Amino acid sequence: MPDISAHPLRDVLVKFWAPIPWLLEFAIVLQFVLHKYLEAAVIAGLVIFNAALAYFQEGRAQATLAALKHRLALNASVRRDGAWKTIPAAQVVCGDLIKLSLGGVVAADAHLLDGSVELDQSMLTGESLPVEAGAGFDTYAGALVRRGEATAQVTATGPRTKFGRTAELVRTANVVSSQQKAVLQIVRNLACFNAVVILFIGIYAYFHSMPWGEIVPLLLTSVLAAIPVALPATFTLAAAIGARSLAKLGVLPTRLSAVDEAATMDVLCSDKTGTLTANQLSVAGVRPMDGFDEAHVLGLASLASSDGGQDPVDAAIRSAASHRTMTDAPKLTNFVPFDPAKKISEATATDAKGREQRIIKGAFTAVASLATPVLKAAPIADDLEKQGFRVLAVAAGTDGSIQIVGLIALSDPPRADSISLISELKGLGVRTVMVTGDAPETAKIVAHDVGLDGPVCPPGAIPDAVKPGDFAVFAGILPEVKFNLVKAFQKNGHTIGMCGDGANDAPALRQAQIGIAVSSATDVAKSAAGMVLTEAGLGGIVAAVKEGRITVQRILTYTLNSVIKKIVQVLLLAIGLVMTGHAVLTPMLMVIVMITGDFLAMSLTTDRVRPSSMPNSWNVGRITVAAVLLGLCFLAFCVGIMTIGKFNLRLEIEPLRTLLVVAIVYGSQATIYSLRARRHMWGLRPTMWLVLSSIADVAIITVLANRGIAMAPLSLPILGFELSAAVLFGLILDAVKIPILARFGID
C-alpha cells in the first residue's frame, strides 16, 4: 500500500489559511503599519489561539491507513522454484501459487485451484457465516482461513485487491462538515453586508475631507468590528465540551465535528453483522425428527463438535447443548474434525450398554446422502434456509442403519438493544436504513426482527437517484457500494450517520458526516469513524444524538449573538461617523470589545439549553435574517445611548467613545441572556461559568471606563445609568425575539 502522509508543518499552516484568519492577518499588518504594536500582538494572539485549538482537536486519516496495513497478512506460503517458501506478503506478485492453511490470513486476492477451505470474509463482505470454498472460488486479501487447506493463484495485490481498494476509498473519502459550511456561510454573509457598510464609511470619510491619519484607523476599526474572531474557536470548544460529556457515557469522538454533526443527522445507515447483530452464531432452533427431542439432537451434535477450537459453528452448538440435559448420553470414543470436502464432522460413541454408534453432523445434503431418507426432513430444511438460517443435520446409528435425528438452525441474533435503538432514533426524527454485505434473505429477516419493515433493494447496481425512504434494507453490497450509497444520500441533502464494525465499513464510516464504530469493531473501523462506542450496546448512538443537539443549541446561541454584534458594530461606526464626524470607536477599543465580548462569551458553550426534538439544520440564511432583525433592536439601544451622550450630556468625542464601548459591552450581556433560550429567558437557570464570565465582563469594562484605562473616564452614575438601560433593553428584546425566532424556524 502506498504511504501518503502530510507534513505536520503543512497541517499547522493550513489553520492560518481561511477567511477569518485572512482578515485578522490583514488587520495585524495594518496595525504594524500604524505602529500599533500592542494591538497587533493581541490580534496575533487571537489568531494563534484559534489555530492551536483547531489543530490539537482534529483527527487524522493516516491512522486508518496504518490500521488497514496492519490488518493485512504479514507472511505468505508461496511456491517458488518448485518449493514452498514463506515470504513477506508484500513480496507476493500476481500469478504466484499460495497455500491457504488453517488459521492463516489470505495474503492477496486469489483464485482457488484445488483443495477445500472454510473462509471468514465478514471483515470485507459483511457475511455473518463462514463461506465454504473449493476449486474455482475467488477469495479476497484479509480473509481468515477457519478450516481446511487449499492452493490458490494470486490475481491481485496491494491497492488493487478488494481490501486495498477499501484503503484507497478511506483515504479519498471526504465530506465538508456542516460546521465548516456554517462558518464559511456566516463569514460570507457578514463580509457581503459589512463590506457595503465599510465602503460607505470610507467614501463618506473621504468626501468629508477627513485626514488619512483618521481614515485608515477608522477602516481598520471597521474591519475588526466585522470579524467574528472567536466563532471558529467557539465551534471547536463547544464540540470539545460535548465530546467530554459523551466520553462519560461510553462514546469516544475521534473527530470533534462528529459531535455537532450528530445533531443534524437525519439518516443512520447501519451495518448488520456485528452492529445490529452480535456477530456471534447461536442456535436459533432445533427440529427433532420423530422419536427424538431437542436435548437429544443437541447432545449428539455436541459430540460431533470440536471442543475449544475456533470453529464458531461448533462453539454455538456446544453452548446450546450445555443448557439442555440429555439422558443416557453416550460416551465419546473418537472424533473426526470437520472435512470441508465432505462437509461433515463425525464422532464415535458408546451408549450405557456398550453399543457403539456413529454420529454425523454437517450440511443437510451431505448428511442426508449418508442416512436413511426421512420424508419430512427435506421440506423442513428448505423452509429454514428460506428464512435465512444456516441448517445443519445430525444423524446417528450404526453403519448401514444411520438415520437423521434432527435439524439445527443457526443464526446471528440481533443485539438486545437494537429494537430500542431504532425506535428511539425514530422518535428523534432519524430514519434507520440497514446496509449490509450479507444475503438479502438473511438481511430481511434481521431487519424485521429489529423493527425495520420496508422494501429490500433488489440485487445489482444501486439507483443513482436513490433516497433513504425508498428501501429499508440494502443487502449484498461491497465496501465501494456502501461508500457510494452514503454519497448518494448526501447529494440529496441528507446528513448521514454510518454505524459499522468491520473493514468493509471503513470507507462509508469515513465518508459519512458521522461515522460510528461499535465497541467490538476492528481497529480499521475505529480509526475511520468519527465516534467509537467504548461500551457494549448501541445506546451510545442515542446519547450522541442528544448531546449533539445540546452542543448545536449552544453554538446557535453564540452564533446569533456574534452575528448581531458584528452587524451592529459596523452600522454603529457608520451612524456615529455621520452623527459626530469622527470614528466613534478606535482599534484599541475594538480589541477590548473582542476580548470582553467575543471570548468571554465563549462561556455560552457550557450553558444549559433545551435540545430540539428533531434533527437540527444550519440554515444560515434564516439565522442571518433573524440576527439582522434582532440586531436592529441592539442598534437602536446603542444609538439611543450615543444620542443621549452627544446631545443631552454633551460629551466630547473621547468620553463619547467610552460611553459607546460600555453600551456595546453591557448591551451584549443583555443580548446573551435574552437569546440563550428560545422562549423567555427565565425558563432556564444559567450555568456558573456563564454567570462568572458575565460578572468578569461587566467588571472589566466598568473598571476600565471609570478609571480611564485605555479610554476616557466616565463617572459611576453615568455607568449605572447605562447598566440600568441595558437591563431594560434585555427585557424588551426577550419579548421581541420569540415571534422573530418562531417566524424563521429557529428552535
Q: What proportion of the residues is helical, as a percent range?
A: 40-55%
Tell me about the biggest sheet?
8 strands, mixed
pLDDT under 50 segments (min length 5)? 59-69
Number of strands: 21
Plain-language structure description:
The protein is an alpha/beta fold. Helices cover 51% and strands 17% of the residues. It has an 8-stranded mixed sheet, sandwiched between helices. Strand 11 and strand 12 form a beta hairpin. Helix 22 packs parallel to helix 24. It is elongated. The two termini are 48 Å apart. 49% of the residues are buried.
Question: Helices, strands, pairings?
Answer:
Layout: H1 8-14, H2 19-33, H3 37-57, H4 62-71, E1 75-80, E2 83-88, E3 97-100, E4 109-120, H5 122-125, E5 131-133, E6 138-139, E7 144-156, H6 162-172, H7 178-207, H8 212-226, H9 231-248, E8 251-253, H10 257-264, E9 267-270, H11 272-276, E10 282-288, H12 294-303, H13 312-321, E11 331-339, E12 344-350, E13 356-363, H14 364-368, H15 377-386, E14 390-398, E15 401-411, H16 418-427, E16 431-435, H17 440-449, E17 456-457, E18 473-474, H18 479-491, E19 496-500, H19 506-511, E20 514-517, H20 523-528, E21 531-533, H21 539-580, H22 587-599, H23 620-648, H24 653-675, H25 688-707, H26 716-743
Parallel strand pairs: 9-16, 9-19, 16-18, 17-18, 19-20, 20-21
Antiparallel strand pairs: 1-2, 1-3, 3-7, 4-5, 4-6, 4-7, 8-21, 10-15, 11-12, 12-13, 13-14, 14-15
Helix pairs in contact: 2-3, 3-9, 4-6, 7-8, 7-21, 8-21, 8-22, 9-10, 9-21, 10-21, 12-13, 21-23, 21-24, 22-24, 23-24, 23-26, 24-25, 24-26
